Amino acid sequence: MKTVIIIGKMNKLMKDLNDYLKIYFQVQICADDINNAEGMLKVVEPDLIMINLMGYTAGERDLFKTIQINFPTFPVITIGTEAEQKIFADFYSGVQFENLVRPLENTVILSAICKRLGISEQEVKENANLPKDNRPKILAVDDNMSILRNIKSILEEKYNVSLANSGMKAMNMIGKSRPDLILLDYEMPVVDGKQTLEMIRADEDIKDIPVIFLTGVNDENHIRAVLALKPARYLLKPVIPEKVIDAIETVLKNK
After folding, report:
1. Lowest-pLDDT range, 98-102, 152-156, 233-237?
2. What is the pLDDT of residues 174-226, one digit of tens each?
3. Cβ neighbour number for residue 50 with a 10 Å cutoff
4. Is residue 115 located within the same domain as residue 191?
5. Is residue 132 part of a domain?
6. What is the CATH number of the domain that holds 233?
7. At which of 76, 106, 126 does a domain end?
């Protein structure tokens, strides 16, 4: 994993840069004091230097000169507005210094770093230290995208939620990443909830995943047909936040 040193005044941008880049690189933060920066650069020998120009004035030109003279082989990417960049304009005439104009997306920063280091952005992403999501995985299946978005908004604070708008898409997603519980619409076109549940139960590897049916039809015969399939629970639509969370917690607890 490549090493990046971030130099700059301690502010929100510095924190945000650190939080984002440490997913992909070994990151060291250094206050903009010249002596501190020079000492760290000698010890760490980074693959790339990033400088946050926010709050910089002409007084920080000595920092640029120190890097240019003493560490000419280290590529440098600065992040600053056009006005901030102008203060140090002469340093950008060579190949060592490059500025990314703020505001910008984090993805642009990552791409620029990978380009300067001559490494594959795809490989960097594949080897990223992404924080693990240990929350229970919930797969919500419904042909109505508005309902799916509503379910996601209700559950995403407590659960890792995935969405599928058909039974076949759900089966494909289950094969790639096994959910802990499935919220399944009973009334869907082409492949309905009954058929989807039958496919789940026919597969030895996933047959034990608990399924909560969602149905928009509230008559006795219909409910009996739903219950005959022996789902873990069933809920009437539209989904009530408290009821769906309570149902999920109860089923997972008894799983």
Report:
1. 233-237
2. 988 999 999 999 888 888 888 999 999 899 999 999 999 998 877 777 778 87
3. 27
4. no
5. no
6. 3.40.50.2300
7. 126
Three-class SS of the chain: CCEEEEEECCCHHHHHHHHHHCCCCEEEEECCCHHHHHHHHHHHCCCEEEEECCCCCHHHHHHHHHHHHHCCCCCEEEEECHHHHHCCHHHHHCCCEEEEECCCCHHHHHHHHHHHHCCCHHHHHHCCCCCCCCCCEEEEECCCHHHHHHHHHHHCCCCEEEEECCHHHHHHHHHHCCCCEEEEECCCCCCCHHHHHHHHHCCCCCCCCCEEEEECCCCHHHHHHHHCCCCCEEEECCCCHHHHHHHHHHHHHHC
What pLDDT shows up at residue 187?
Answer: 87
The residues, any chain, with a CB within 8 Å of residue 34's CB and separated by 6 or more, are 62, 63, 66
Q: What is the pLDDT of residues 203-212, one digit of tens each?
A: 999 999 999 9
* Total of domains in the chain: 2
Structure tokens at 35: 């002596």
Per-residue pLDDT for 32 more than 70? no
| Same domain (yes/no): 48, 106 | yes
Contacts of 52 (CB under 8 A, 6+ apart): 6, 7, 8, 9, 11, 13, 14, 17, 78, 79, 80
The number of CA neighbours under 13 Å toward the Cβ of 104 is 18
pTM score over 0.70: no
